[in-house]
Amino acid sequence: KSLGCFSPSEQLESFCHLLHFLSAPRRIQGARPISLSAAATGIFGMGRGGDDNGNQKLTLQDVAELIQKKECHRMVVMAGAGISTPSGIPDFRSPGSGLYSNLQQYDIPYPEAIFELAYFFHNPKPFFTLAKELYPGNYRPNYSHYFLRLLHDKGLLLRLYTQNIDGLERIAGIPPDKLVEAHGTFATATCTVCRRSYPGEDFRGDVMADKIPHCPVCTGLIKPDIVFFGEQLPQRFFLHVADFPMADVLFIIGTSLEVQPFASLADAVRSSIPRVLINRDLVGPFAYQPQYNDVALLGDVVSGVEKFVELMAWKEEMQELIQRETEKKYFGANR
Ligand SMILES: [Zn+2]
Which one of the listed residues 20, 152, 183, 240 is annotated catalytic? Predict the structure, then answer.
């Protein structure tokens, strides 16, 4: 079964991950932890490489050296909520958070309803309250995002697959063609009636003024291109079919790998390449089927990224990059 064929339940699960993003860092979904491809691998008894071949367990230092020697230079990164929590992205389910109180006034039946099309057409206001919060500008990228930017600057980033909808990867300066925003983006929007596509910026004024945006051509309701329940993942997601087999190192940062189809991408790379997990906990194949070329850096995500940056001797470059980007913000050149 190809990764590209999503059943409705898989789409729902994928969508649940979007919700998981919003409620990070806690786990809220009882999603299945094992991907189909990994299960099949187990049945046929052919793991990824493995110690049976006498391979030494790979270390983070080894991975750093492989990249320094340009033996690995086509990095694919999978990222999740864990890279954005240090930026203060809010949990809209948490009583006490400003966003939660803002949503309460709408009397929504349950928080997930704001990502349901039927509810959106009934009452789009709760969704646009969230949109107002997450529209580019309210939050700043953190060290993890700039690390990914540095990978791109160094020509090492083949593609970044993110589950986040906060747009912080773009704000950090990673070009859209290097990005797959698996659960959509506020950067573009589509008319729900005539399907015309618009830059998200066109409706920024409306959203900020608590006005529901409407299509200038047909007056239909405008919806930012965030993936709702039952909707297809963006076309760009299918780039994985080429990207993952081409990757020569995979980084998985700040995601619990709980939800398909995103999670099974971790098994879509060639079995011989190093996989590095930087995350609070051991997750996905790193937990249930660790291989000799898997490296896990557990704990705080930013600390994990810093550790790798140090091994690469990129500390100064990171500081310079962050300083440059922060100055841009003050001079208003980043928007
Ligand atoms: Zn329209």
Answer: 183
Q: Is 55 annotated as a binding residue?
A: no
37 in any annotated domain: no
CA of 126 to the centre of ligand 1 (A): 21
Distance 102 CA to ligand 1 centre (A): 28
User: What does pLDDT average to in each consecutive run of 10 residues of the chain (335 residues)?
Assistant: 38 43 33 35 39 79 97 97 90 70 81 90 93 87 98 98 95 97 94 97 95 97 93 94 97 89 92 97 94 96 98 98 87 49
Q: Is residue 239 part of a domain?
A: yes
Q: Are residues 264 and 294 in the same domain?
A: yes
Rounded to the nearest angstrom, the distance between the alpha carbon of 215 and the centre of ligand 1 is: 5
Residue 322 labelled as part of a binding site: no
Q: Are 167 and 305 in a shared domain?
A: yes
CB-proximal residues (5 Å) to ion ligand 1: 191, 193-194, 215, 217-218, 220
**Do residue 293 and residue 172 come from a single domain?**
yes
Task: Determine the structural domain holding residue 298 and report its residue range.
Answer: 56-87+141-183+235-334
Residue 164 assigned to a binding site: yes
196 is in an annotated binding site: no
Give the total number of structural domains in the chain: 2
3-class secondary structure per residue, the chain: CCCCCCCHHHHHHHHHHHHHHHCCCCCCCCCCCCCHHHHHHHHHCCCCCCHHHCCCCCCHHHHHHHHHCCCCCCEEEEECHHHCHHHCCCCCCCCCCHHHHHHHCCCCCCHHHHHCHHHHHHCCHHHHHHHHHHCCCCCCCCHHHHHHHHHHHCCCEEEEEECCCCCHHHHCCCCHHHEEECCEEEEEEEECCCCCEEEHHHHHHHHHCCCCCECCCCCCEEEEEECCCCCCCCHHHHHHHHHHHHCCEEEEECCCCCCCCCHHHHHCCCCCCCEEEEECCCCHHHHHCCCCCEEEEECCHHHHHHHHHHHHCCHHHHHHHHHHHHHHHHCCCCC
- Known catalytic residue: 20? no
